[in-house]
Specification:
The protein contains six helices and 13 strands. The longest helix has 16 residues.
Length: 253
Amino acid sequence: MGFVHITKNNIEEEHICCALGAKQYANAVREKKKWLIERMDEGLVFYRLDERAKVFIEYLPAEMAWVPILAPNYMYINCLWVSGRFKNNGYAKRLLEHCKKDAINRGMDGIVHMVGKKNYPYISDKRFFEHMGFELVDQAEPYFQLVTLKWNEEAEVPSFKKQVKTISNDEGISIYYTVQCPFAVGILEELRKVAKYKNVPFKTFKLTTKEETQNSPSIWTTFGLFYNGKFITHEIISPNKFDKLLTKLLAED
């Protein structure tokens, strides 16, 4: 099986894997594609298996990444996803090798990626990256970790940025998100209905620029859910799970 490099010239005809087959997220997919097109001028690459499958890598220069990190002259991996029957066939390694080759050709010093202390939904499996030679270089509460593969030993060590913005005065649910993931955009109104039913204040904040995300109160800028100003989860949560979460949070008040 071959791979497809998604570009401005073919993105309208090609699928982008993320919400493959989820018709309810059609508008969110269009927003994601628009976001990708804009980032391609900044060096973003979307490279996927030439199949109807969620097997792809998305990366761009770390200086342009929509996450609060400092990693000059590194390549940042937004997402590396291999799902279903395509797992354990070497595709993740091939996708990572494509990214590494591209980064070397661009004269970069290494690759950086965000993982979790343990397995979490929507965050890469740390064990795979450790197996591929990545090393832990920084951590951020409550469970985010930054791992790096570098080939220039003199290069600066990547780190998380100090978060300068707080939302401690926010009441109820606050969700910070970007259009990088169709699932994040597509689920918001369903969550709003749940919060309204439980009479819980509900606000969403769409991060629309690199500067906003790099100074975001949420480390995982794709989706960050807060309650009364406290970070709760990065998980793009289902309405049913959200209902149970609100019941628990209200009981603890």
